[in-house]
Amino acid sequence: MQTTSLRPRRTKAVVVLDLAATVPTAIRRALTGRGDGSRLLGWSVLAVLAVVVAAVLLVASVLRDPERLAPAAQDPAPPGGAVIVPEPVATRDTAGPATPTPSVPPRPSPGPRRSATARPSLVGTPGTTPDGTTPSRPTTPAPAALGADFVIESPQLLSYGAAVTISNPGSVPATDWTLVVTLPRDTLDVTHVDGARATRDGATWTFVPDGTTGLVAGEGEVRVTFRVSGPPQTSAPTACTVDGTACRGVAG
User: Fold this and answer.
1) Which end of the chain is more exposed for a tag (fewer CB within 10 A), N or C?
2) pLDDT computed for residue 147 by the predictor
3) Which residues contact 159 (CB under 8 A, 6 or more apart)?
4) Terminal Cα-to-Cα distance of the chain (whole angstroms)
């Protein structure tokens, strides 16, 4: 049964160092040789050994630090395999003369602006028109003169009834009329007045509107009635007016 010894594997650096360790022994043997021929041979061997040692030291140095032999001026490779593109060298423009840009003519400057002409103010003083004159106010037409018609109604032996119709011929209403009736004697009396209020001054009786006949509409009329204490043949009115206008139906 064979026994196999397990010896560690020798690296290149270890081999080189072992060779370097044998150099002193070989030098000593070469120098201690006898005879001239032996010395010459020894010096030759010494020179060869010196070259070998130098080579060994160089190889050992390379094996320990192989990056020293990399070119110093070489740029490191870009990471990720990127390609560096050299910058383009500026060259002269040989395309010919540049085309001149057409110049734009300047715009004509606008003329002076016209100042706004002040318009005359239309605001005048209160109660006047813009031209300073006083405006004419629309005038309300005056009511027309009233007329009246007198008639005797329901005559009896010792009295009679009288009716006065006051009319407005115009389109404007009239108010505050006055009816005046004059009897032949101051002993005659007036009773049962309707549509007016009566006052007496001797034989003259004055009638003014009450609350129902104060307004006489345009082209309208109101009616006043009363009773006289006397026979109609001798007690009929001798005069009758409304606002100074004589009544129709009375013989004056």
Assistant:
1) N
2) 97
3) 227, 228, 229, 230, 231
4) 194
